[in-house]
Amino acid sequence: MVNTFIERNVADWKPTHKKLAELLLDPKTPLFQRYRALFSLKNLADKPSVDIIIQCLREEKESDLLLHELTYCLGQMKSKDAINVLCETMADPSLHAMVRHEAAESLGAISQLDTIPELEKFLNDDCKPLADTCLLAIEKIKYDHSPDKQKEDPAPEEAVHTSIDPVPATTNTKSIAELRTMLCDQEAPLWKRYRALFALRDINNDDAVHALAEAMETDVVSSLLRHEIGFVFGEMQNPASVPSLSRVLANTKEEPMVRHEAAEALGSVATPEVFEILKKFTDDPVKIVRDSCIVALDMFDYEQSGEFQYAIVPKEGEGEKAF
Ligand SMILES: [Fe+2]
Ligand SMILES: [Fe+2]
Q: Where are its TM segments located (predicted)?
């Protein structure tokens, strides 16, 4: 199966694409290597890379964690070619909630007005993280196409992170106390809470971390919001988040998608104590959590190694290279 695909497209592909496709599409490749191959393709950001990721999304049967990351990358690559497969993924009730959520969020990242009717179909879905994500994605698409966007967006050189966020950071205030109040208000619309969340991420000092940690550990209404805080802690790489992330990872009553983000964020913060914490959960009964810890330990290695980027991009003509 894998080889048929590669042979069919071989004329268009560079050796790099072939190598990365072999690694990503083969279920026997260790998960952490498939992750690195995926992020290499995301960095290449060209049509063959999108095709390979879509092929993997259609074929993958084993790993919900990989499926959710494939859908995430397609959104971050802003690939219009991926819209159909993302709509199918979002609509498939046999898939894990985390995968369907990520597909909806990626449609928001690609931000095409004509996908709004697709997202509207799931606004009342029983899967709450999916319903909430669709609501945020619709608001984001409308925002992206409104005059507010030009008014509020920071100049590209001022942007702290290069990722496409599901909701823009608020520009109304930079007061941590005010942002904390907005974020922790469990009655407020998610859109407003998320805007505070991303503003706190951009501030990224210890007080901002403490406000985010408080929301992650006290919120009871939205696992989606709690998982997003875990995700931004990975971007912030602030050691002040480690105690809170460790408690969330260890909390077996917490939703797997939140514990997953906590694990990956710990791998990315990568202070020395993180290694033992992650190792402890590599045999967690929840597959997504233990797989996240395995991937996070590889991210930890990468952070410790001082390598240039979390990916593998073999040089042209180079065979097996590695990391
Ligand atoms: Fe997510
Ligand atoms: Fe994730």
A: none
Ligand 2 centroid to residue 260 C-alpha, Å = 7
* Ligand 1 centroid from CA 9, angstroms: 31
Per-residue pLDDT tens digits for 57-78: 999 998 999 999 999 999 999 9
The single residue listed with the structure tokens 């992170």 is: 161
Taking the CA atoms of the chain, what radius of gyration do you get in angstroms?
19
Architecture of the domain defined by 155-308: Alpha Horseshoe (1.25)
Return the residue matching tokens 């072999």. Answer: 22
CATH code of the region 1-152: 1.25.10.10
What is the CA(227)–ligand 2 centre distance, in A? Answer: 8
Binding-site annotation, residues for Fe cation: 68-69, 101-102, 227-228, 260-261
**CA 231 to centroid of ligand 2, rounded, Å:** 7
List pLDDT tens digits, range 25-67: 999 999 999 999 999 999 999 999 999 999 999 999 989 999 9
